[in-house]
Design a protein that fits this description.
This protein has 123 residues and is an alpha/beta fold. The chain has a single domain (4-120), classed as STAS domain (Transcription Regulator spoIIAA, 2-Layer Sandwich), CATH 3.30.750.24. The chain contains four helices and five strands, in the order ββαβαβαβα. It has a five-stranded mixed sheet with strand order 1-2-3-4-5, sandwiched between helices. Helix 1 (25-37) packs parallel to helix 2 (58-74) and helix 2 (58-74) packs across helix 3 (87-100).
Amino acid sequence: MPIVFTVVDHDQPYLEAVASGQVTADEVRAHLLDECRARALSYPELIDACTATPDWSSREARDIVDVMKILGEESTLGPTAVVVSTDYAFGMIRMLEILLDGSCILRPFRSCEEARHWLSRPG
């Protein structure tokens, strides 16, 4: 299932999305392009992926990171909090975070409350 926006707030720059089921690298790339089309790449984003399972290889993880780095060269990428419910999903998002090497901020969380708190912190 694709990653679907549930909130796009241009007045107070902020995004929320929900991911569920098996999430492929192609769906992650499509989501990033949707964000680009919405002119919201720089917005803080919360992705509720509690019912999702990452379904990409380590090579595809590097491809996702490459796309994010390219987009980050064209526009500032806002911080992204991904809420997950399994150790596997946490590890996969953490792998992306490490591969991004500070080019943008992506972080896994176990609760929406914790993720929202992190996103609300000043820069």
